[in-house]
Write a structure and sequence with these properties.
The protein is an alpha/beta fold. The chain contains eleven helices and ten strands. Bound molecules: thiamine diphosphate (TPP), iron/sulfur cluster and magnesium ion.
Length: 281
């Protein structure tokens, strides 16, 4: 299938940050050696969600906010696939937020890239949860600190489309983390919507690169949280590898071949087959 599939052309406005996210992802997949037939890109709705049309891989356009449960199912069903979920901050931090919290907690081995632009680009510029309620202040949801506060999380990074080389390295690190079976690799990307909310000037001024700070230790969860909190108080935004740890992944916890959501309960594959048999009869 992937041999005959020609990736689509992006439908994004000229200058949209999502081009940079896609470029970094395509280069990262090449670098880690993820072949198209061994890769699946799943995406949410929104301008960002169309990314799965444009990458040479298996693709899935999820229901609004539901990309993470779909991606978790794919990763569990075929652990040999490189699984990349992607979407916007509206998709991931509003209707999809419950799934993000529980995916941090469960720690399945897949990559999730969130293109944050503080707006709903596709539906013409409503405020996203990352923007917060008050346009004058940066009081939006910070998913980096959210992830740090959940003990099961194992990889948290933030890139910026203005920093293309770093974004590519972070994308490689995220995919490698997931492909090594080390758990959920969360990569938020500051990806401005130049049409409805051009944050390039503000984010250029506010970005603080923790990768360049020799005193910053990405293995120290509490230290990472304290640094992110302090930077936020100073109206700065940390970018770089924020946290990496060695928490057990979901599939390692479940054990090979065990697909039961309720330990001791029926195998979910039997439940599914029973359901399908019932539908067919
Ligand atoms: C169930 C449902 N509710 C609402 C919508 C309308 N809708 C389309 S895109 C979108 C938000 C997109 O914002 P974001 O995820 O941030 O992506 P962006 O366009 O900014 O890249 C919404 C609410 C929808 N498609 N489906
Ligand atoms: S509306 Fe905004 S997010 Fe959507 S393609 Fe245009 S610049 Fe990008
Ligand atoms: Mg958005």
């Amino acid at each position: 299938m992937t041999e005959t599939y020609t990736p689509g052309k992006p439908i994004w406005c000229a200058g949209c940050g999502h081009f940079g996210v896609q470029g970094a992802l395509v280069r990262a997949l090449e670098k880690v050696g993820a072949e198209p037939h061994e890769t699946m890109v799943l995406a949410g709705i929104g301008c960002s969600g169309t990314i799965q049309n444009n990458v040479s891989a298996y693709g899935y356009h999820a229901l609004h906010g539901r990309v993470l449960p779909a991606a978790t199912g794919v990763a569990l069903a075929n652990p040999d696939l490189t699984v990349v979920a992607a979407g916007g901050d509206g998709d991931g931090y509003a209707i999809g937020m419950g799934h993000l919290v529980h995916t941090f907690k469960r720690n399945p081995s897949l990559t999730y890239i969130v293109m944050t632009n503080e707006t709903y680009g596709l539906t013409k510029g409503q405020r996203s949860p990352a923007a917060g309620p008050d346009p004058a202040h940066n009081e939006g949801i910070d998913s980096v600190r959210l992830g740090l506060s959940i003990p099961g999380s194992s990889f948290i990074a933030r890139g910026f489309t203005r920093q293309a080389e770093q974004l590519e390295s972070l994308t490689v690190a995220a995919v490698e983390h997931a492909n090594a079976g080390r758990g959920f690799a969360f990569l938020e990307v500051l990806s401005p919507c130049v049409t409805y909310k051009d944050l390039y000037p503000q984010w250029d001024a506010a970005a603080y690169d923790v990768d360049e700070d020799p005193a910053y230790d990405p293995m120290d969860r509490a230290g990472a949280f304290a640094t992110c909190q302090r930077l936020d108080d100073e109206d700065r935004i940390p970018i770089g590898l924020i946290y990496t740890g060695n928490n057990e992944s979901m599939e390692a916890r479940w054990g090979p071949g065990d697909r039961r959501l309720n330990p001791g309960g029926p195998d979910d594959r039997d439940v599914l087959h029973g359901f399908l048999d019932g539908m067919a009869s």
